[in-house]
Design goal:
It catalyses: L-histidine = trans-urocanate + NH4(+). By secondary structure, the chain is mainly alpha-helical. 55% of the residues lie in helices and 6% in strands. A three-stranded antiparallel beta sheet has the order 4-6-7.
């Protein structure tokens, strides 16, 4: 594992991508540890003063008026965590759990949560061992924080209750897993249980997972779109910079430039430079307008999620300079909810326009290519049902894209009367990203087949590289064969971003 120093409050998306992907563990600068110490000391002084402070020596939610005496403060925090372990459903993916733990470290290390360094060190120890708490995916409404999933994280990592997945894939009772790692359960101090389960770290980790997937789908969809333009002998005139400068939308200008670079010096384009075709269908010529708008919104969502990843989102917040505990609502995940809904719409559009290009490729009346991209069609069905699969996924994405953020439902005896629904909104966006990756994968396969029909004419050098990468795994279709594994292989390439020139990937270029 490689150490990666992070700065709480200023951790970049570049670092978050590395931590999401694995192989790195975060380290904290010295001033972060000082801030953590100061915040914990403030809690001690507040208790010594005899003041009543929510979550420190009171009950929670509607029970906030109940004062808890000093002999029961540890029980208060343990009971809080255990009672909130109400998650259901399949466990969250390990990459999401890892990122959530990182985000919890970032938030606690801002020095506004009143926890001891011991808690942060425990999370770091688990990350270093690649041991992930098993967290049920369902049960959070994204307000008062991601209470249920963060309670499962806390119970496993601190109390030794629940389950932990070890590096080798062994799933053990948490107490046994901690013992295997040479660790013991932690007795939570005042406010520590509340600080651990309050916050938006699960919804934000899910949102970042969806964002990072969407970035790779977006980048590969541009390659797929360019391949389809060449396979269909489309025009590159719609990508002329003068058109896009006339509108001024920054994403549109950048996508048009990318399309020009992907199609530059194509033999196929040169072969029909003087044809009398006037205009291509929208899914070909409006790619800068559609994908450019998606790019602008992707980058907006990235800014929202990067900010949230660095945020302090528990309650109350402890200000050590004045020994104040201020109650607010930073745990409300509305920014994540709205960003996740935007990401869902973006992914719907990427898949939708990709499927429309695919539909042209398989239609001999529009493409000028063999029906369903296979010779001896009739005997062979070629890409007929691959297009149907893409259409089914586009339809499913439309259903999944219903905005989660507009669907508030009151909880906790109406104390928490407006909630964000960010957690399942972000989680379903991951499903959207997987569907979109499959649609783009099918288009890549179809466009590569279309390019084959133009041999010996060659596409541009970037598209030759993409075509060669596909053909290294998937031979051309000269007759029908078992199709699903081909889609799976190319979908994996879409999800890895391996078909995208490195200097063009969103994660690698600065704006």
């Amino acid at each position: 594992m490689n150490a990666l120093k992070i700065t709480p409050g200023r951790t970049s998306l570049d670092h978050l991508r590395l931590l999401w992907a694995g192989g790195h563990i975060p380290g904290l600068p010295d001033d972060a540890w000082r801030a953590i110490d100061d915040s914990a000391a403030a809690i001690t002084r507040i208790l010594q003063s005899g003041r009543t402070v929510y979550g420190v020596n009171t009950g929670f939610g509607l029970l906030a008026q109940s004062r808890i005496d000093g002999d029961h403060l540890a029980d208060l925090q343990n009971n809080l965590v255990l009672s909130h372990c109400c998650g259901v459903g399949e466990p969250l993916d390990g990459a999401v759990v890892r990122l959530a733990m990182v985000l919890k470290i970032i938030g606690l290390a801002r020095g506004l949560s009143g926890v001891r360094p011991l808690l942060i060190k425990r999370l770091l120890a688990l990350l270093n061992a690649e041991a992930m708490p098993v967290i049920p995916a369902q049960g959070s409404v994204g307000a008062s924080g991601d209470l249920a999933p963060l309670a499962h994280l806390t119970a496993a990592s601190m109390l030794g209750v629940g389950e932990i997945m070890l590096k080798d894939g062994t799933r053990l009772p948490a107490e046994d897993a901690l013992k295997t790692l040479g660790l013991s359960p932690v007795e939570l101090g005042p406010k520590e249980g509340l600080a651990m389960i309050n916050g938006t770290q699960i919804s934000t980790a899910l949102g970042l997972d969806a964002l990072f997937r969407a970035e790779r789908v977006f980048d590969t969809a541009l390659v797929a779109g360019a391949m389809s333009v060449d396979a269909l002998k489309g025009s590159d005139v719609p990508f002329d910079p003068r058109i896009h400068e006339g509108r001024g939308q920054p994403g549109q200008i950048r996508v048009a430039a990318r399309m020009r670079a992907l199609l530059e010096k194509s033999d196929i384009r040169a072969s029909h430079a003087d044809c009398d075709k006037v205009q291509d269908p929208y899914s070909l010529r409006c790619q800068p307008q559609v994908m450019g708008a998606c790019l602008d919104m992707l980058e907006f969502c990235a800014r929202i999620l990067e900010t949230e990843a660095n945020a302090v989102t528990d309650n109350p917040l402890i200000f050590a300079d004045s020994d104040e505990a201020l109650s607010g609502g930073n745990f409300h995940a509305e920014p994540v909810a709205l960003a996740s809904d935007a990401l869902a719409n973006i992914l719907c559009e990427i898949a939708s326009i990709s499927e429309r290009r695919l539909a042209i490729l398989v239609d001999p009346k529009m493409s000028g290519l063999p029906a369903f991209l296979v010779n001896n069609s009739g005997l062979n069905s070629g890409f007929m049902i691959a297009q149907v699969t893409a259409a089914a996924l586009v339809a499913e994405n439309r259903m999944l894209a219903h905005p989660a953020s507009v669907d508030s439902i009151p909880t906790s005896a109406n104390q928490e009367d407006h909630v964000s629904m960010a957690t399942h909104g972000a989680r379903r966006t991951i499903a959207l990203a997987k569907n979109a990756a499959s649609v783009v994968a099918i288009e890549i396969l179809a466009a590569a087949q279309g390019l084959d029909f133009h041999a010996p004419l060659k596409p541009s050098l970037p598209l030759q590289a993409a075509h060669a990468a596909v053909r290294a795994h998937i031979p051309a279709y000269d007759r029908d064969r078992y199709f699903a594994p081909d889609i799976d292989k190319i979908r994996a390439m879409v999800e890895s971003g391996s078909l995208v020139p490195a200097d063009q990937a969103i994660a690698n270029r600065k704006t």
